[in-house]
Specification:
Heat Shock Protein 90; 21 helices; 23 strands; binds adenosine-5'-diphosphate; six-stranded mixed beta sheet; binds magnesium ion; Ribosomal Protein S5, domain 2; Rossmann fold; elongated; single chain; alpha+beta
Length: 631
């Protein structure tokens, strides 16, 4: 550890990623510089909340100065803006760690997105991304951070012009806060407006009005502090007293967002456990929605003291929900770890999860359009719950919306689907894959279409996960159309004249047996199909074992080594099949070519390549030659 006794300023280079970020920050993310102030205020408020938490175990950290505050001081003549807090402060090592590196893992992806020239979007991402502090260099040519860790006798000064290096040196104790952090910005000439009270007041009111620490402004050197925001916790107020714009402002503060929330859930639970929850469904997709960690961001407070944002209050499939829970019953004296395993927290989690889902359901009923928009953005994540949260599976299936063969928008509910079941239809049919356009045109759908049976088109990665967890909805099982026998004979065709077409005759049966013999091991079976109407062939999976599309997905992700052999289904009513079946034994080699080509055709329709490229091209060449009358 370094102590104040080593007096000479220590110069260090920023970590490479910080330099890259700073460069980006200054050169491409220019559309909304205001964001720097919100970031610095949010850091100051975090520092006050962390102190309050540490002071539960060590009350002497607070000393005489127990009321948290943030002060913004302007010195227009010197072009200086100072943001000061009396929070936890930073030690030398904490400073080097926090202000010289980037802790979060997703930074690279973030920078790539900004570098992809979406400057406006970049600005809206900064806050969510935890690179907040560095945004000061968008408006400052030099930044000094003077900080004293709560309870420490020494203070440190960090200083940088944001161009690759920074220095750290001991700060004169009389020139440092008694506790906490002072961030001093030397404002650039072209950002001078940030030394005007009017501008600062506007930004604070619009972006930080509901930070849970009071914020005061000192208009010019020597002036008295004037309160801009009172630091009252919005969530403790009755709903009737809160205006929609207060909610929006608060949402922006907790989520680091710039949009409007798509849904606000605010309630107080009384009874066995007393707590308040204020949660928001964002209006747009947060940048980290698909992070491997899948971590939620709901904050946990106890009696208005911030405890942790790691409490996993909501299940992972609700990780996009932002907000907080403030408990009146959890003992403040418990450590974070003990709070995590408390049965009270367990009950709170259950209740908040239930309420968020219930409010989504209510919205779905009262405003299908607004709910549909939420589903478009977060549906793929909500669907994770269908296989992860067995207890709430029915609720989640009710919330789910689908693209189907009957609806061009992904807005069809299972309730709608079941209401439109055909007589004798006992299953909910689906097809799963990664390409919606191909799914729609899959030959496997033809027999279903001809009977007016609706099919769910599932093209999200997550779909292959939940459909295999064998759910059912109101007693109807989910069934893949590419698996097992179609069993469609019971359900009448829409256009009855098709029924008149001859079913499998002896010649066709003979041909099917011939194809089976020819293809040998390549397929597990060849049989007549009742799921085809227009196409001659398709591939399906056997009744047991994974669906074909799923098998492919699993193979792609390395989770399955050997795929089961598919079944080739042949349409006995197809004219091509009838013509081939009519050929005599003297055409054996031609029929063999045809058998292979039919199989390859089925593979191509499934998005695969012919089995044996050379064999395929030779056969095709022979066929074309014959077609030209030269064979
Ligand atoms: P984030 O706030 O998401 O962690 P920032 O870039 O805004 O990212 O801040 C980096 C880190 O610097 C913070 O996590 C904190 O440890 C430290 N820090 C910044 N400002 C302050 C402050 N006013 N008081 C104490 N620590 C601070
Ligand atoms: Mg921050």
């Amino acid at each position: 550890m370094t102590t104040a006794a080593d007096t000479k300023p220590e110069s260090r280079a920023f970590e490479a990623d910080v330099s890259r970020l700073l460069h980006l920050m200054v050169h491409s993310v220019y559309s909304d510089k205001d964001v720097f102030l919100r970031e610095l205020i949010s850091n100051a408020a975090d520092a006050c909340e962390r102190l309050r938490y540490e002071a539960i175990a060590a009350p002497k950290l607070l000393g005489e100065d127990s009321k948290a505050r943030i002060t913004i001081a302007i010195d227009a003549d010197a072009k200086r803006l100072t943001i000061e807090d009396n929070g936890i402060g930073m030690s030398h090592d904490e400073m080097v760690e926090a202000l010289g590196t980037i802790a979060r893992s997703g930074t690279k992806a973030f920078m790539e997105r900004i570098e992809a020239k979406k400057a406006g979007e970049g600005a809206t991402l900064i806050g969510q991304f935890g690179v907040g502090f560095y945004s000061a260099f968008m408006v400052a040519e030099k930044v000094d951070v003077v900080s004293r860790r709560a309870g420490s006798g020494e203070a440190w000064r960090w200083s940088s012009d944001g161009k690759g290096t920074y220095t750290v040196e001991p700060a004169a104790t009389d020139d440092a806060p008694a506790r906490g952090t002072r961030v001093i910005l030397q404002i650039m000439e072209d950002a001078k407006s940030y030394t005007e009270r009017f501008t600062i007041e506007r930004i604070v009111k619009a972006n930080s009005g509901h930070v849970p620490v009071p914020i005061a402004i000192i208009e010019k050197p020597g002036a008295e502090p004037d309160e801009l925001a009172d630091g009252a916790a919005l969530w403790t107020k009755p709903r009737a007293d809160i205006k929609p714009e207060d909610y929006t402002d608060f949402y922006r503060t907790v989520a680091g967002a710039f949009d409007e929330p798509a849904l606000t859930v605010h309630f107080r639970a009384e009874g066995r456990h007393e707590f308040t929850a204020l949660a928001f469904v964002p209006g747009t997709r947060p940048f980290d929605l698909y992070d491997a960690e899948r971590k939620g961001r709901m904050k946990l407070y106890v009696k208005r003291v911030f405890i942790t944002d790691d409490a996993e209050i909501l299940p992972r499939y609700l990780r996009f929900v932002r907000g907080l829970v403030d408990s009146a019953d959890l003992p403040l004296s418990l450590s974070r770890e003990m709070i995590q395993s408390s049965p009270i927290l367990g009950a709170i989690k259950k209740s908040v999860t239930g309420r968020v889902l219930a409010d989504l359901e209510k919205l779905a009923e009262s405003n299908a359009e607004a709910y549909g928009k939420i589903w478009d953005v977060f549906g793929a994540v909500l669907k994770e719950g269908i296989y992860e949260d067995y207890e709430r599976r029915d609720t989640l299936l009710k919330l789910a919306r689908f693209r189907t063969t009957a609806s061009a928008e992904a807005r069809r509910s299972l309730k709608d689907y079941v209401a439109a079941l055909k007589p004798s239809q006992t299953a909910i049919y689906y097809i799963v894959g990664d390409d919606l356009a191909r799914l729609e045109h899959s030959p496997q759908l033809e027999g279903f279409r001809a009977r007016g049976i609706e099919i769910l088109l599932l093209a999200d990665m997550v779909d292959s996960m939940w459909v295999t967890s064998a759910p059912s909805f109101t007693g109807k099982k989910f069934r893949s159309v590419t698996q097992g026998a179609a069993d469609l004979a019971e359900i009448p065709l829409l256009d009855t004249k098709d029924e008149a077409k001859p079913e499998t005759n002896e010649a066709v049966s003979g041909f099917i047996a011939f194809v089976k013999l020819t293809l040998g091991d390549a397929v597990s079976d060849v049989r007549a199909s009742d799921r085809l109407t227009d196409s001659a062939v398709c591939l399906v999976a056997s009744e047991h074992g994974p669906d074909r599309a799923l098998e492919k997905l699993l193979q792609g992700s390395g989770r399955v080594i050997s795929a089961a052999k598919p079944i080739l289904e042949i349409n006995p009513r197809h004219s091509l099949v009838a013509a081939l079946a009519a050929l005599g034994d003297d055409e054996k080699s031609f029929k063999e070519d045809a058998a292979h080509l039919l199989y390859d055709e089925a593979r191509v329709l499934d998005g695969e390549r012919p089995n044996d490229a050379k064999g395929f091209s030779d056969r095709l060449a022979r066929l074309i030659t014959r077609g030209l009358g030269k064979g």
